[in-house]
Request: fold
Amino acid sequence: MKVTDHIAQAKDTLISFEVLPPLKGKGIDALYKHLDPLMEFKPSFINVTYHRSEHVFKKRSDGSFEKVIVRKRPGTEAICAAIMNKYNVDTVPHLICGGFSLQDTEDALLTLSYLGIDNVLVLRGDAAKNEAAFEPEPGGHKYASDLLTQVVNLNNGIYLEDELKGTNKTNFSIGVAGYPEKHFEAPNMETDLQYLTEKVDAGADYIITQMFFDNAKYFAFVDACRAIGITVPIIPGLKPIYTKKQLTILPKTFHIDIPTDLSNEILKCKTDDDVLKIGERWLLEQSRKLKKAGVPVLHYYTLGRPKMVADVVREL
Reply:
């Protein structure tokens, strides 16, 4: 079932979660243990992130170095299918530009379609760790809007091979990312919103936001989107904060602000257990206010803290 269908049929705010694939070499059981405490809330869908390949250099016996391509978290398509099979819940695999050619993307989309998965979240993805700025894969997409167009084309039966006739059409509901505090590469908010408008005009069905800790920024973002004609659902993305380190890591990594009230409370904490209590209370209050405002879905980035998220959702 599509994300947009879940939203259209809902009588109240829905719940969804986002998880990471296991690191290569790890089994899927750890992921199941992560999800088990969350399933009591009957999430409408679960997002599964996609991870690009990385270049690492391994030293040869002669002292020279060999460039090797590795992907540390493979298996998004299979993990989505496994989650659907185990929990009978819809999944939303992420698709990214970085590290994937157009053919890789088409193959992934066909695999997802064969598995009965009809949702994707289209993202450009981050720059590789050894790159100062994002560089597309040779023969790959540079922008999320181009990747989105490929998904829309496949929904219309248009494959990379022009000579294919009588092709089967896929049926994906397509989500894209939105940034209440502006994407860090956009010169200003107006430009960023224009890029988002282009994605919606090209076929995006809904928007999931980057994490934020100040609801006012989400509401202002929604108002700005509506003012320029974006009418698709805008799903708020929420993340728990549970360590002091996150006060510097999150702004640096995701280019977001931590509200002064929250940071001041956390800085007073003597242990991370104390931070967790503050973060849980803040997330609960955010969730309550968003739900009261009638947001379509509360989407939780659960990465590493399923119990904390479960405690918050239970209080709702």
Observations:
- The chain has one domain: 3-315.
